[in-house]
Amino acid sequence: MECVRRNNLDQTAKQVSRNCAMKSRNSFSVRSVEFNEDGAIMTHKGLKICTYQLQELVLGALNQSIAGKLVKSVNILRDSYTGTLSRCLESLERIDKDHANENSTSEALKQLVQSMPWHSQPKIDLEWKKKLATDILSNLSEARLVVAADVVEGMRFLHSQGLVHRDIKLKNVLLDKSNRAKITDLGFCKPEAMMSGSIVGTPIHMAPELFTGRYDNSVDVYAFGILFWYICAGHVKLPTAFERCDNKDHLWTGVKKGLRPERLAVFDTDCWELMQECWDGEPLKRPLLGDVQTRLVKIHDYYKKTANPPTKEVRPKSAASKTKYNIH
What we know:
Layout: H1 2-26, H2 44-98, H3 107-114, H4 126-139, H5 142-160, E1 163-164, E2 173-175, E3 181-183, E4 190-191, H6 218-233, H7 240-243, H8 248-256, H9 269-278, H10 289-307, H11 317-325
Antiparallel strand pairs: 1-4, 2-3
Helix pairs in contact: 1-2, 2-3, 5-6, 5-10, 6-9
Enzyme class: transferase
Catalytic activity: L-seryl-[protein] + ATP = O-phospho-L-seryl-[protein] + ADP + H(+); L-threonyl-[protein] + ATP = O-phospho-L-threonyl-[protein] + ADP + H(+); L-tyrosyl-[protein] + ATP = O-phospho-L-tyrosyl-[protein] + ADP + H(+)
GO biological process, one term: cellular response to fibroblast growth factor stimulus
C-alpha cells in the first residue's frame, strides 16, 4: 500500500513538472519585473518577484492535480461506505424476517443513509409524494399518539390538583409493559399557589415567561408542545434551530424572540398546528389541556382509519347474477 502511495506521488510530481515546464515556455510571463537586453533580471527585488511567481505557478498546478485525485478518492470511499451500509441493512432485514420481528431493526439506519449529505436529491413525482405520505403515517404510529394522550391525561390530573409539573420532557415520561405513558420526576412540581417564581426546568422545554418569574400552569402546555415535536419526529436529536445556539443564554434569548423547532417533512398538518399552538409565546393563546386531548383523539382516530381502511365486501359475480335474476 505504501509503495502504491509513493508511486502515485511520484507520478503526480512528474506530471506537474511537465505541465509547469510547458506552461512556463508557452504562456507564462513574469509580471512587474525589469529585464536588460540579454533577458537578465536587473535587480535583486526583481529576482524575488520572479521566484515568487514561479512558486505560485508550481503550487497552483500541484494543488489542482492533488485536489482532483483527492476528490476521486473521496468519491470512491463514499460509494464504498454507502455500499457497506446498504449491505448491513439488507443483512439486518433478513435477520428481522428470520426472527419474525414486527419492527425492522434497520429502519433507523435506512433513514441515516437517506439523510447523508451526498445522497442524491429526490425527484418530486407521484412516487415521492406517496412515499412521503407513507412516512407521515408511519411516524404517526398509534403507539406514539397514545403516549402523547397519556401524557396530557397525566398533566390534566396534576393541574386538577392545583399542581404544576414544570419539567415535562421525554426523560420524565416512562412506559409500562403495555407501552402506556407515566409522568415521573416531580422534583420541580409545586402547587400553583405556592410557586415563588423560581426559574426551573430543562432549557429547551422552558416557556418564555418562565424567565420573568411570573407564570402559571400553561408552562406545562408549552413543554408538551416541545415534547410532542419529539414524539412526532421519532428521534431525540435537538431541533436544528436549537442546535445552532452556542449556550443556554443564546437559546433563551432566541426563545424569547420566538425561536421554535422547525417543521419536519414527516409532520402531519394537524400535529404541526397543535405543536405551534401549544408553544405559543402568549400563555393565554395556548390551548387548554382538555382541548389538546380531544384533538389528539381525533388525530388518532383519523390515523387508524387511514392506516387501516375498511375493506369493501365484493359479492361474487355469479351470486349477484342469481340474486338479480332469481336464478336457482
